[in-house]
Inverse folding.
């Protein structure tokens, strides 16, 4: 309500006092409610399926290796150039469609999910890892191919449904 | 009191080609004040009331503000330059980061601009989803403003009540997009994901509960007698001055100017929705607060309508894989929580825009601060600055 | 005033009204020296009371800087774009910050980013950039050790 | 034994008097000057007060944090000790081992003295505070005046701290505090005067005894509210916490203080909070008097109830502006206090 102008001087004083009383009443009522705090390290909220944590390149359990073909599309789409790929080379020196090193710079990544979307082989997933603070910047560049990350839980089945068909979007 | 200067002007290297004069960091005090009681107070870049890294140098006479010089640019990241070297889809996550409280509105404005350049029609469902998300985002942003403003005014309790409600919205947005603040949810032609299955159930629950919570917040802060006494008639800016300063959003509407991009430069499905545009009468700090509270109520109404008329369909139009709009230019504006968010995009027909100019509401709103504030008290400085709802990365870009 | 009247009056005053592709707002190009009188006319006669933004475009191939003033009318809800072309070297444009107060900061920003001098500006200090930065970042030929271009797509 | 316990809790004055008399007699018999014994007694009181001050601060800080958390649907401290009750102890330990920073430009002597000045003024108030029947270091016959006079002394420490920090925010905080405490002293004095009129004495013990069973609050409802408001303002707590309003003045007069010196300010602030509650309880709620429970328990219950009220108010309202604060004192509280005093005087005379 566009209140304060609507009343006369006495009405304003009275409504002012009433507003203070109402405020006190609200806070008093809250004293008897249950806290809504989530006791963080022990209790945790359930992360939604689409949560965007650190980028991982999970091992496909059927293939026993990651799904990357070093097609460079993620490198090209990354707005911050946080990804770089070194391809494996065959005996004749020609590059193979496999990453020798998949370098991911956590320090510049902004968790935008563009690399995951652009990947035609579903090789990348944004994991649930979000406690990423460290005291050492040196650990920011990681080789995801060497990491051999095992994706588990709901996210794993969501991810596997994407390339095994029957993708319902969830 | 000593005349204080900040930085040493003599040591600064000459500016390039000498056309733009080197900055004088602090305007010299008027000569009359050198011997009087005035003194300079440096507020920021690290100060509890500046909500980020901005700095105002205030000439004070006791507790009264005589003059105020804002300094910005502490978080200037040169985004507009970065955009010239990014493809159209790469820019979307950056638009989140210009204003972390209204990432969705920024996504919306930018994506809509690119779609206009491409001549792309988006499905009806996408429009509804966009409006739903934008209004949720508006409520979340206003709630955060209310919370932070309560802190500015010395009331800590509304902060946590507002955050409880905001958390619900943010969780809904997170479930849909995967991000809480920097959502990066919009894509050219639609959305990256469809809405999650239980989205409407959650939304319904939220709508049923939030009205009462909002009334509580209203009573606790905005209607409170102390709050009213501190904000009523403080920091007045008239309609003409507000328009001349380019103010938009709640700050302008508080000054009795009924301008809302949603109605006056209609976009998306807003013309088919019914909502009121709350307008203040005096343009003072209380009006700016009241307008935001009312806007949240209107957003609830919009959410209800959008939920009822929500159509079936695709969540993404068939957009070309490589976005290469034809040469041209476009200005796409949406009503963000802080006012008109506009993207002026110039395309030269390549995959990267020739120029993207971001017109950000906080920039213009903040530029009016010296005018609003002159002659008020230092406590009013906090009240007025808070009521402008500044987001510093948006000012600096 | 209605939108059609405003547009008709605009066409009458500026015969060279052009509409660039996609953006529906009519655009007029005016010389720098008459910018102020045109803006005053637009504001006072045609009720374009709201300066949305001021910016510039660098056109190195044409050796020109193109200033863009976008106006909007709260009354008629019509937008208009006023463009000013000036040479890249020694660009001087009169300030409009007394006509639209918001132009003060927009001009300060444009000045430091593009290297344009707004004559008679009341407060010609830098706004966003550090004091020791050389060059004008939004010009296309700007280089800086910290400005690293993304590698081109492989 | 049962008698002794009963006396200890319910008739402390008799017990103390008997003990003191006995001590005096044996002291005098040895021919030692009695003054020394009296000084020793006072030192004992001081030690007791110091212990109470520390324990009370531990409790009251925890109490406020917990209550504020309840109001804000949070849990509050819950990690150190059961229900987090030892949190304050942990914080104190942290404060003690932190680096003590004194700004280069500060006036070192004054800077160091300021926290002690504030603490001393609150500490001295314990002299006249009747905790129970006879449980008072010195029931001065000008107790009420003493309370008002010494209570106002803290302004010197705050102003000194604000000045000595050589920081504009600190100075403004100090100046605000000076203006605020001095202004709110006036309605406080006038309200307390009407109590003195009713009781016919300035001695706090007499005032407690003179009160009807339900306290003076029913005779002086307006007076109670006035006193609560004024003392809330005098102890610089929200919504009157302008001297250290964190959103405007960063931290006001404590901006430059750190480590132990900050802790002392903090201790004084919370002791002041208790004292405001204790004096309100003594003057308006019947002090230590009450049925069944021992007087000390009644006194603490009443004091902490007023403290609860003050905390509740603090966590509900936004902060006042400095000129509103002054206007409120001089234009609202002062006339109300005067009217209250006048009506009380007339009624006392007539009835």
């Amino acid at each position: 309500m566009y209140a304060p102008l609507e009343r006369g001087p006495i009405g304003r004083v009275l409504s002012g006092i009433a507003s203070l009383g109402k405020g006190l009443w609200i806070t008093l009522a809250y004293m008897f409610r249950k806290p809504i705090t989530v006791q963080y390290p022990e209790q945790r909220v359930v992360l939604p399926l689409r949560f965007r944590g650190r980028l991982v390149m999970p091992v496909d359990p059927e293939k026993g290796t990651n799904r990357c073909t070093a097609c460079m599309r993620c490198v090209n789409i990354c707005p911050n150039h946080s990804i770089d790929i070194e391809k494996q080379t065959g005996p004749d020196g020609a590059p193979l469609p496999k990453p020798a090193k998949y370098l991911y710079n956590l320090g510049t990544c902004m968790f935008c999910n563009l690399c995951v979307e652009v990947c035609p082989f579903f090789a990348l997933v944004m994991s649930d890892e979000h406690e990423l603070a460290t005291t050492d910047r040196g650990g920011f560049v990681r080789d995801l191919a060497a990491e051999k990350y095992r994706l588990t839980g709901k996210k794993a089945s969501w991810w596997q449904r994407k390339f095994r068909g029957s993708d319902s979007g969830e | 009191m000593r005349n204080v200067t900040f930085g040493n002007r003599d040591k600064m290297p000459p500016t390039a080609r000498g056309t733009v004069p080197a900055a004088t960091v602090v305007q010299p005090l008027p000569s009359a004040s050198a011997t009087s009681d005035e003194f300079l107070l440096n507020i920021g870049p690290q100060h509890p009331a500046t909500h980020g890294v901005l700095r105002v140098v205030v000439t004070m006479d006791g507790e009264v503000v005589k003059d105020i010089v804002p300094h910005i640019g502490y978080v200037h990241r040169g985004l507009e330059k970065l955009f010239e070297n990014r493809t159209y889809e790469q820019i979307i996550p950056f638009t989140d980061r210009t204003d972390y409280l209204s990432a969705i509105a920024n996504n919306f404005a930018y994506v809509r601009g690119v779609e206009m350049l491409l001549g792309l029609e988006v499905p009806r469902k996408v429009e509804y989803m966009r409006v739903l998300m934008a209004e949720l985002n508006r409520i979340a942003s206003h709630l955060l403003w209310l919370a932070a403003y309560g802190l500015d005014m010395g009331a800590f309790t509304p902060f946590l009540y507002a955050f409880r409600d905001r958390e619900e919205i943010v969780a809904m947005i997170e479930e849909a997009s995967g991000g809480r603040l920097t959502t990066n949810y919009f894509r050219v032609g639609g959305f990256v994901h469809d809405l999650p299955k239980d989205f409407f159930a959650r939304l319904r629950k939220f709508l049923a509960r939030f009205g009462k919570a909002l009334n509580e917040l209203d009573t606790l802060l905005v209607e409170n007698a102390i709050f009213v006494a501190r904000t009523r008639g403080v920091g007045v800016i008239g309609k003409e001055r507000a328009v001349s300063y380019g103010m938009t959003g709640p700050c302008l509407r508080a000054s009795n100017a009924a301008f809302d991009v949603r109605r006056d430069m209609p976009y998306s499905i807003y013309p088919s929705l019914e909502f009121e545009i709350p307008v203040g009468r005096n343009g003072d700090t209380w009006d700016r607060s009241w307008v935001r509270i009312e806007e949240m109520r209107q957003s609830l109404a919009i959410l209800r309508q959008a939920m009822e008329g929500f159509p079936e369909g695709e969540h993404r139009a068939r957009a070309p894989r490589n976005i290469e709009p034809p040469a041209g230019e476009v200005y796409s504006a949406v009503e963000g929580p802080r006012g008109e968010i506009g993207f002026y995009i110039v395309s030269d027909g390549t995959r990267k825009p020739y120029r993207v100019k971001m017109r950000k509401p906080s920039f213009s709103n903040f530029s009016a601060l010296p005018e609003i504030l002159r002659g008020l008290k230092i406590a009013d400085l906090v009240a007025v600055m808070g009521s402008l709802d500044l987001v510093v990365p948006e000012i600096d870009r | 005033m209605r939108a059609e009247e405003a547009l008709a009056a605009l066409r009458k005053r500026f015969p060279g009204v052009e509409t660039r592709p996609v953006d529906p707002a009519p655009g007029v190009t005016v010389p720098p020296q008459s910018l102020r009188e045109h803006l005053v006319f637009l504001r006072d006669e045609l009720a374009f009371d709201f300066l949305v933004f001021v910016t510039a475009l660098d056109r190195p191939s044409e050796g020109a800087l193109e200033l863009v003033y976008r106006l909007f009318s709260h009354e008629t809800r019509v937008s208009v774009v006023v463009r000013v072309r000036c040479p890249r070297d020694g660009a001087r444009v009169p300030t409009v910050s007394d006509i639209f107060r918001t132009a003060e900061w927009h001009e300060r920003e444009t000045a430091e980013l593009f290297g344009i001098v707004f004559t008679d500006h009341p407060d010609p200090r830098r706004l966003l950039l550090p004091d020791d930065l050389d060059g004008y970042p939004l010009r296309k030929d700007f280089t800086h050790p910290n400005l690293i271009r993304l590698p081109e797509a492989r | 034994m049962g008698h002794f316990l009963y006396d200890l809790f319910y008739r402390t004055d008799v017990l103390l008097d008997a003990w003191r008399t006995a001590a005096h007699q044996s002291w005098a018999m040895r021919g030692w000057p009695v003054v020394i014994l009296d000084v020793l007694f006072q030192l004992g009181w001081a030690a007791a007060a110091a212990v109470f001050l520390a324990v009370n601060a531990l409790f009251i800080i925890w109490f406020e944090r917990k209550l504020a958390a309840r109001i804000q649907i949070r849990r509050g401290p819950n990690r150190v000790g059961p229900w987090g009750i030892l949190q304050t102890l942990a914080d104190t330990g942290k404060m003690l081992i932190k680096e003590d920073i004194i700004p280069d430009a500060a006036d070192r002597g004054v800077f160091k003295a300021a926290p002690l000045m504030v603490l001393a003024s609150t500490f001295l108030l314990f002299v006249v505070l009747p905790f129970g029947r006879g449980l008072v270091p010195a029931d001065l016959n000008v107790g009420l005046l003493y309370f008002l006079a010494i209570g106002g002394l803290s302004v010197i420490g705050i102003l000194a701290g604000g000045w000595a920090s050589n920081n504009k925010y600190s100075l403004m905080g100090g100046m605000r505090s000076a203006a605020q405490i001095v202004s709110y002293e006036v309605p406080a004095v006038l309200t307390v005067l009407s109590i003195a009129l009713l009781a016919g004495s300035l001695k706090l013990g007499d005032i407690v005894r003179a009160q009807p069973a339900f306290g003076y609050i029913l005779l002086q409802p307006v007076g109670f509210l006035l006193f609560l408001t004024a003392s809330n303002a005098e102890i610089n707590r929200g919504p009157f916490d302008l001297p250290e309003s964190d959103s405007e003045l960063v931290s006001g007069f404590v901006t430059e203080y750190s480590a132990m010196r900050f802790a002392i300010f903090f201790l004084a602030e919370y002791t002041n909070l208790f004292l405001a509650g204790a004096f309100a309880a003594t003057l308006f709620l019947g002090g230590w008097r009450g049925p069944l429970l021992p007087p000390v328990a009644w006194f603490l219950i009443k004091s902490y109830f007023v403290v609860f009220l003050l905390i509740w108010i603090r966590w509900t309202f936004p902060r006042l502006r400095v000129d509103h604060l002054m206007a409120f004192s001089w234009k609202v509280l002062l006339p109300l206090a005067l009217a209250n005093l006048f009506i009380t005087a007339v009624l006392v005379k007539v009835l």
